[in-house]
Specification:
This protein is of the alpha/beta class. The chain contains 4 helices and 6 strands, in the order αβαβαββββα. The N and C termini lie far apart (66 Å).
Length: 179
């Protein structure tokens, strides 16, 4: 009688153990897969997260990541731009995956600046994580300029003209919701 109960017990326990092992392997594999998918967009090989823009500025692609975007229009030979270069590089490295930071040399790639309100360099353009123009409650607090359409008064651009320090960027990051 003991062997009959043991046999029934094994018939129940063995399938349960097999189902648990298979389920555990499946969960482990899917958890690793989702981590890989999340890391892939911000890998150093992804040009969307490279600081320097060299041929194309695809805003729709950048907006698809759901991250705030800052585009600095400047030039490699501009003195204030040179002063900002290490700041942009550091921020791009430290905030990769949290903010997309791009630098466009307008003297080398003039066509990439077309359509943006750039009257001097450096000029930074700010776009929120929702893909819309960044619209802080108090833009003058950050010396930001806002451009609206004449007919509908719709906000089209939020910019900053001139150099910015790391602290300046970090204050704006905070308002943009970046931790």
């Amino acid at each position: 009688m003991l062997s009959v109960n043991k046999s029934k017990w094994l018939k129940i326990v063995i399938p349960v153990v097999i189902v648990c092992v298979i389920g555990g392997v499946w969960l482990l594999k899917n958890a690793q897969g989702s981590e890989t998918e999340q890391e892939a967009p911000v890998s150093s090989n992804n040009q969307d997260f490279a600081l320097h823009v060299t041929d194309e500025l695809d805003l729709d692609q950048l907006k698809s990541y759901g991250l705030p975007i800052i585009i600095d229009f400047g030039a490699d030979s501009c003195v204030p731009c040179k002063e900002m270069a290490p700041v942009l590089k550091t921020l791009n490295e430290e905030y990769q995956g949290k903010v997309i930071i791009k630098f466009v040399d307008v003297w080398k790639y003039q066509e990439l600046a077309q359509g943006f309100p750039i009257s001097l360099i450096p000029t930074q353009i700010f776009i929120g994580a929702d893909g819309k123009t960044f619209n802080p409650e108090n833009p003058t607090e950050f010396s930001l300029n806002q451009y609206v359409t004449k007919d509908t008064s719709e906000l089209v651009f939020t910019t900053h003209e001139g150099g910015m320090t790391k602290e300046d960027f970090l204050k704006i990051f905070k308002v943009m919701g970046v931790q």
